[in-house]
Amino acid sequence: MPNLIHRQIADLLLQGKQNAVIYLDRRRVEERLSLLDENNLFLCLKELQDRLGLPKIPRRIECYDISHLSGTFVYGSMITFIDGRPAKKFYKLFKTKNQKNDDFANHREVLTRRIQRYFDSLKLTEDVGNSWILPDLLIIDGGKGQLSSDYSVLVDFNLENSVPICSIAKRIEEIFSPHKEEPDIFTGQTLFLLQRIRDEAHRFAITANREARLKTASKSELDEIPGIGPKTQRKLLQTFGSVKGIIETMDQNPMLLHELVGQKIVEKLKQRFG
Q: How far apart are CA 93 and CA 209, in angstroms?
């Protein structure tokens, strides 16, 4: 009995510590977001205009990212920020026709389809709202290669002088522009805004990829993974209920999966399901 009480107390202390960490993390995020009030957002957008040489303040910003699993479940995300705030009603997803691990080709396909939607909307008699109007700034999640690839799409549509474009590289958050030799380095709240936009595009693409994986996951897929025999399969399915449950655990609580079947099996599952 004393050992049980001690374990319960330890569990409560651990839970309290975890809750405190979560609370502090949330407070830090809220404090950073509160800094981005309307006035500060305007200053951030004005800095983007000045530093990137934009013709006007970028009120409408779109950002694109590609997510895939070893060349399958390839999705491109298009997210929209208006006046520095997410405008989720204008978010779009593109399942690429080219289901291959070719980042440049996937970027080109997604942007081509997006711009074609703009021209198609001009032919419609009914009002389609602001869904497909061209942005004041187009941001690509990637480096010089992705930027060059997407810029070629603008050239194909004769929009290279109408739609400003840049890319944000993850290494040190460099901002590349088509006609600049050296990247721009932003700091402070303007950098934070760019990171928010990039991270939102990444999140949206990853979510689409994950949902697609879950829809197609089936028990038979476990049979196709070398090194996972019937005994391990039974253990996994009895514990998590389905392949979908295994994938969700892998995403949300990988340590639980590791404790059940070990690191080697977890690595095999990751290779299969991402």
A: 10
* pLDDT at res. 15: 56
CB of 169 within 8 A of CB of 176? yes
- How many Å from the N-terminal Cα to the C-terminal Cα in the chain? 43
Q: What is the pLDDT of residues 110-131, one digit of tens each?
A: 999 999 999 998 887 666 667 8
On whether the pTM is more than 0.85, the answer is no
Pairing of strands 72-82, 92-95: antiparallel
Domain covering 39-211, topology: Nucleotidyltransferase; domain 5 (3.30.420)
**CATH for 217-273, options being 1.20.1250, 1.10.150, 2.60.40, 2.130.10:** 1.10.150
Q: Quick check: 79 and 137 in contact, CB under 8 A?
A: no
Residues 33, 25 contacting (CB under 8 angstroms): no
Cα–Cα dist 107/201, whole Å: 13
According to DSSP, the β-strands at 165-168 and 184-185 are: unpaired
